[in-house]
């Protein structure tokens, strides 16, 4: 409650109720001296407490109290280019993908099914279909006996037809040469001895490889077959570059 005195009387302001009352000087005097003159005012009933609504506040707002029905709006200005900001900037990261590479090469596989150098064995034998082989064929850079070994073709094949003979292959070409050492090409296909396989994936330097391999038999002498592999694939080397940026500068990192 605030009390303001003037010549004409006293103004009493209740900020919590946003109401004001004006009491004249005579009223004040009579209230102050009511007990001495013997004349009193009849007792008044107490009014219930007033809980002013927003509408009431808007209509009866004294100058010492202002009603604001809406909360203040807080805005933040972000300027990543200049660095002027009222909030800390989170670090952003960008990845620059490596360029896709193309692989074309001609290799040879050497299949040996008997003797001390055997690299393919039959594990299930059936009269017409179902015969299954497991092998780890040598892969070389030439068809002759002096060619360099660059890896192994490892996997299985199952005969799925006999007129003509058709096989389903599940293979992995594992490189052991200096360039692709430890990398692989994952191969799948259904074909005769001469046919085409699909490259369905790769690992290491040859990650995410896609392409084809065309297999052609060159010769079959005794227990040994030599076949040519024409490889054509696209792959994405796993050496992407990551760029990190914040309001202080950039940082480049090669994965």
Please explain how this structure is put together.
With 255 residues, the chain is mostly beta strands. It folds into two domains: 2-59, no CATH class; 101-235, Beta Barrel (AOC barrel-like). It contains two helices and 15 strands. Strands 5-7-8-9-10-11-12-13 form an eight-stranded antiparallel barrel. The longest helix has 13 residues, at 25-37. The radius of gyration is 47 Å and the shape is globular. It starts with a strand and ends with a strand. The model is unreliable at 16-40, 60-67, 74-83 and 241-255 (pLDDT under 50).
What's the layout of helices and strands?
Blueprint lengths: L1 E4 L3 E6 L4 E6 H13 L16 H6 L32 E5 L4 E12 L7 E5 L7 E9 L8 E14 L2 E11 L8 E8 L3 E9 L6 E12 L2 E12 L5 E6 L2 E6 L1
Antiparallel strand pairs: 1-2, 2-3, 4-14, 5-7, 5-13, 6-7, 7-8, 8-9, 9-10, 10-11, 11-12, 12-13, 14-15
């Amino acid at each position: 409650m605030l009390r303001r005195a003037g010549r004409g009387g006293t103004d009493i302001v209740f900020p919590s109720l946003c109401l004001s009352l004006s009491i004249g000087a005579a009223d004040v005097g009579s209230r102050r001296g009511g007990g001495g003159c013997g004349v009193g005012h009849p007792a008044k009933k107490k009014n219930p407490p007033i809980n002013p609504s927003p509408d009431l506040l808007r209509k009866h707002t004294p100058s010492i109290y202002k009603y604001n029905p809406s909360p203040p709006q807080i805005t933040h200005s972000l300027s990543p280019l200049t660095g002027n900001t009222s909030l800390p900037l989170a670090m952003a990261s960008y990845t620059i993908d490596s360029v896709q590479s193309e692989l074309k090469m001609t290799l040879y596989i050497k299949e040996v099914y008997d003797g001390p150098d055997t690299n393919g064995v039959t594990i299930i034998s059936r009269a017409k279909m179902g015969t299954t082989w497991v092998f780890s064929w040598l892969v070389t850079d030439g068809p002759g006996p002096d060619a360099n070994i660059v890896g192994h073709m490892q996997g299985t094949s199952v005969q799925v037809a006999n007129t003509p003979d058709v096989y389903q292959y599940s293979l992995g070409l594992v490189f052991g040469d200096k360039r692709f050492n430890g990398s692989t090409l994952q191969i799948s296909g259904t074909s005769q001895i001469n046919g085409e396989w699909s490259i369905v994936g790769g690992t290491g330097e040859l990650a995410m490889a896609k392409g084809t391999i065309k297999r052609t038999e060159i010769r079959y002498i005794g227990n040994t077959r030599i076949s040519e592999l024409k490889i054509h694939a696209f792959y994405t080397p796993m050496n992407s570059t990551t760029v990190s940026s914040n309001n202080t500068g950039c940082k480049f990192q090669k994965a």
